[in-house]
Predict the 3D structure of the following.
Amino acid sequence: MKNAIVSVVGQDKVGIIAAVSALLSQYEVNILDIRQTVMEEYFTMMMQVDLSGMNTNLTAFKDALRALGEAQGLSIGVYDEGLFNAMHRV
Amino acid sequence: MISQHEVFDTLRMIQEEKLDIRTITMGITLTECIHEDPQEVARRVYDRICQKAGRLVQVGKEIEAEYGIPIVHKRISVTPISVIGAASGEAGCLAIAKAMDRAAKEVGVNFIGGYSALEYKGIARGDRAVIITIPEALDVPDMVCSSVNVGTTRAGINMDAVAAMGRVIVETAQRTADRDGLGAAKLVVFANAVEDNPFMAGAFHGWGEADCAINVGVSGPGVVKCALEQVKGQPFDEVAETIKRTAFRITRVGQLVAREASRRLEVPFGIVDLSLAPTPAVGDSVADILTEMGLETVGGPGTTAALALLNDAVKKGGVMASSHVGGLSGAFIPVSEDAGMIDAARAGVLTLEKLEAMTAVCSVGLDMIAVPGDTPPETISAIIADEAAIGVINGKTTAVRIIPAPGKKVGDEVSFGGLLGEAPVMRVNPVPCGAFIARGGRIPAPIHSMRN
């Protein structure tokens, strides 16, 4: 897997983007694009990231994001970008 | 770049609407295992399955982790054992069933299909060996699934095979009486069986297939139901369009997973099966799609029309999304595996007769239906004959998976556990069928012109 989508959903508060970005940086995962909105105090973000330079394996990376999500009260997922391309692009 | 809306649209389907890949099924040819010694053929079958499918479960889990899409089952289908076991007779067939069971457990799949016989025209030695041993093969070896094809549009219906299967189903259920007749839930009687079906219990790896192939079955009744909630009260044109769009997306995920599994396992991609396969979980029901269309309860007037629209729209939407579509491809209507169907059957609205009508317009047939344990074998044979006739005349696949639940009466409940679900025992028409089934012989193939 090279490009992935990281989805982050939860109650809005200060420092969500900082916390997620810091973790991506720690694993040498490069951010290619960020889309983020807040609707009625509900924070949603998707990041397009490049996993080709990642310094760990996918399972460890997903576990770290999940742990961060639990600590911050957020739901964080990682998905191969191919899934979304398959569903939404002909 | 994918938009935020599209990402969360997909995640909603997976997390809330139960979108999943129902099964990655590896088809494996076993013809090179044939040997006249029962133990030798069994050893070869075990070795070959373990060798070919050793990485199947691991690869399935990898794809699941990377794409974030649940892959519910990893399964195996094999060449019909009537061919593989013909040289070694009944002892060989049973030894093979046990070898299939051990191999399935070794590689970690949860079902293995192909304890099958194709006897739509005549019953050969191997076919006979398989049918005689089905009750035993579906009892102790708990991973094995069986199917028998008793009719085709080109050959007609083999009524000797139909008569035999009524007896086999009753015996299979009785052998597993302590589990509500579970054995019969793993036995399908087909007309026009397909050779690349990835769904159990009817999967087998047909003659025309490669050494090994990856077939993928998608699912997603919940996704279709939720999509239809957005077009409440609108005309059927809009309903059909919505189902097509949704089926397209679901199937694209199936195609993606099939391609990845094929590449990683270095096994050719066979087909994507477009079926909408329900589970007993709430929100994963085909019946709920039909009620969303406006039916008060599944089984009432209008049900056949609603199901016909659904089945057709799923195919139209799915066909463009995959390079090769095959298998059963349509909507499944198993009673015990669909919460909405279970409710309708309990309420007495959904009857065996209405289900038979529904099978004329959808994929497969009378599926996972519990009937009283004292239902005569001839009556079950006659039900099979009716269902086969619908398939043979209309050039479609039909099937019967019926469970005469030992010791149970109409209104009692059976429970098979897990995805096989639970169901009320349904009423069967009590008119005797003995003289009709006793005739035997063959019902000739239908004429293909003058279609009225």
